[in-house]
């Protein structure tokens, strides 16, 4: 049986009975466009279709095995094909099962491969390195890995891959192994003002125990500017244990050195969030000559406090009602006026939506807005007047309302009425 499942660039094949599967991704080899004369050089990238096969990825016992079939390389090796084969038993692909399930759920998997080179690595003759970045947008999951080509015993029949000029295995694949992985399980998150947040980033590498020195740097980019948030160098010493050298630029940011060394967890904690903490965070992990990154988006959100200027409304003359939406973030907020007349059940929009003040920004970066509605005396008692505020930090729009009350007859009119009734009464009696 040989079923190939192909969905949005990913198909999975089943091989072994011991709970391991091959994950096959369709990727693009991205290269800086060279040799394109007259195109001005630099900034041009070419994309060539490539296939990446992770061999023997461990899967849970409850995988629907009948859905999977083994990956079969082409029967005749083709030096034109870009077929990367990566063994992942070590360091292991974190959350490989999520990649497997991305297929079942028809999620889009993005995969890009590019040459990875540093000065120090160029001496190796036949050895090459590649950087692979895989993103499953809907799962908020992303991973960068560095692949190292494995030596191929060259014979006369050894084919060279045309584009990369690297020797191919008997089955026509480029044999590689993952030597360094940096990943994040949460690529984008929102957190409330003054709260704490954990920005998720981790790494894996085959050396056990973990490398003697790990360098981690967290940076924040926002609106074209960049800052360092924190950096940490951990060294593993035979005698002293873990030694961490931390440099904190943003007060209240921290990493756990113990977790860095024992679990490869380089997540960043930010406490007492401010509006200024919003932006794109870049987690860079370096071990020896290798560095890989993850990018995490942090949004700060704060719901508005909503209130009305009046507790009740009695209409003899037009009355101004104000609705305040205070101290929210980000900027976009909407205020609408609605009413429910005494005989209706569904709210309707006021024709005249009143006037909005301009947004005011407070010292802490939050915004306030208010709207003024003039309610005409023609609005009958029993009408419910609603101010509806919409903002991204409020799941659903927030309604605040009051009832138009029946005007109480003034004591003067009471008195006059009483007088008239009395006069009529006496008139009747005396008659
Ligand atoms: C790091 O540790 C935190 C809690 O200690 C956990 O929530 C997070 O998932 C871990 N992340 C990684 C990448 O291991």
TrEMBL record:
<dbReference type="Pfam" id="PF07654">
    <property type="entry name" value="C1-set"/>
</dbReference>
<keyword id="KW-0732">Signal</keyword>
<keyword id="KW-0812">Transmembrane</keyword>
<feature type="signal peptide">
    <location>
        <begin position="1"/>
        <end position="17"/>
    </location>
</feature>
<feature type="domain" description="Ig-like">
    <location>
        <begin position="304"/>
        <end position="401"/>
    </location>
</feature>
<dbReference type="InterPro" id="IPR003599">
    <property type="entry name" value="Ig_sub"/>
</dbReference>
<dbReference type="InterPro" id="IPR036179">
    <property type="entry name" value="Ig-like_dom_sf"/>
</dbReference>
<keyword id="KW-0472">Membrane</keyword>
<dbReference type="Pfam" id="PF07686">
    <property type="entry name" value="V-set"/>
</dbReference>
<dbReference type="InterPro" id="IPR013106">
    <property type="entry name" value="Ig_V-set"/>
</dbReference>
<feature type="transmembrane region" description="Helical">
    <location>
        <begin position="412"/>
        <end position="430"/>
    </location>
</feature>
<dbReference type="InterPro" id="IPR003597">
    <property type="entry name" value="Ig_C1-set"/>
</dbReference>
<keyword id="KW-1133">Transmembrane helix</keyword>
<protein>
    <recommendedName>
        <fullName>Ig-like domain-containing protein</fullName>
    </recommendedName>
</protein>
<dbReference type="InterPro" id="IPR050380">
    <property type="entry name" value="Immune_Resp_Modulators"/>
</dbReference>
<keyword id="KW-0393">Immunoglobulin domain</keyword>
<feature type="domain" description="Ig-like">
    <location>
        <begin position="199"/>
        <end position="286"/>
    </location>
</feature>
<dbReference type="InterPro" id="IPR013783">
    <property type="entry name" value="Ig-like_fold"/>
</dbReference>
<dbReference type="InterPro" id="IPR007110">
    <property type="entry name" value="Ig-like_dom"/>
</dbReference>
């Amino acid at each position: 049986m040989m079923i190939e499942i192909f969905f949005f660039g990913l198909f999975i094949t089943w091989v072994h009975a011991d709970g391991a599967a091959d994950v096959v991704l369709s990727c693009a080899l991205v290269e800086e466009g060279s040799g394109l004369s007259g195109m001005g050089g630099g900034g041009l990238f070419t994309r060539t279709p490539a296939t990446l096969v992770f061999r023997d990825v461990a899967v849970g016992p409850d995988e629907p095995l009948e859905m999977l079939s083994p990956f079969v390389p082409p029967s005749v090796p083709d030096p034109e094909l870009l077929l990367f084969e990566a063994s992942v038993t070590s360091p292991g692909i974190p959350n490989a099962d999520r990649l497997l399930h991305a297929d079942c759920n028809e999620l889009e998997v993005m995969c890009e491969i590019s040459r990875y080179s540093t000065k120090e690595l160029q001496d190796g003759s036949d050895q090459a390195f590649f950087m692979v970045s895989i993103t499953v947008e809907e799962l908020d999951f992303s991973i960068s890995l560095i692949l190292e080509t494995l030596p191929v015993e060259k014979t006369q029949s050894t084919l060279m891959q045309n584009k990369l000029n690297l020797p191919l295995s008997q089955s026509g694949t480029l044999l590689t192994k993952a030597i360094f992985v940096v990943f994040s399980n949460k690529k984008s998150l929102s957190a409330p003002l003054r709260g704490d947040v954990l920005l998720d980033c981790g790494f894996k590498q085959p050396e056990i125990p973990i490398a003697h020195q790990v360098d981690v740097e967290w940076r924040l980019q926002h609106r074209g500017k960049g800052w360092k948030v924190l950096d940490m160098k951990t060294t593993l010493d035979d005698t002293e244990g873990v030694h961490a050298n931390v440099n904190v630029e943003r007060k209240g940011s921290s990493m756990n050195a113990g977790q860095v060394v024992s679990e490869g967890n380089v997540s960043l904690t930010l406490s007492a969030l401010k509006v200024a903490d919003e932006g794109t965070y870049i987690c860079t992990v370096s071990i020896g000559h290798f560095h890989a990154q993850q990018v995490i988006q942090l949004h700060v959100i704060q719901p508005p406090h909503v209130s009305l200027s009046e507790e009740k409304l009695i209409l003899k003359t037009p009355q101004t009602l104000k609705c305040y939406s205070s101290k929210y973030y980000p900027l976009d907020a909407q205020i609408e006026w609605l009413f429910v007349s005494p005989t209706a059940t569904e709210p309707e929009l006021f024709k005249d939506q009143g006037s909005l003040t301009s947004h005011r920004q407070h010292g802490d970066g939050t915004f306030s807005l208010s709207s003024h509605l003039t309610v005409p005396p023609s609005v009958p008692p029993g009408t419910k007047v609603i101010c509806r505020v919409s903002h991204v930090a409020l799941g659903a729009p927030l309604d605040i309302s009051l009832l138009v009350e029946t005007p109480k007859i003034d004591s003067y009119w009471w008195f006059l009425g009483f007088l008239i009734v009395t006069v009529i009464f006496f008139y009747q009696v005396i008659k």
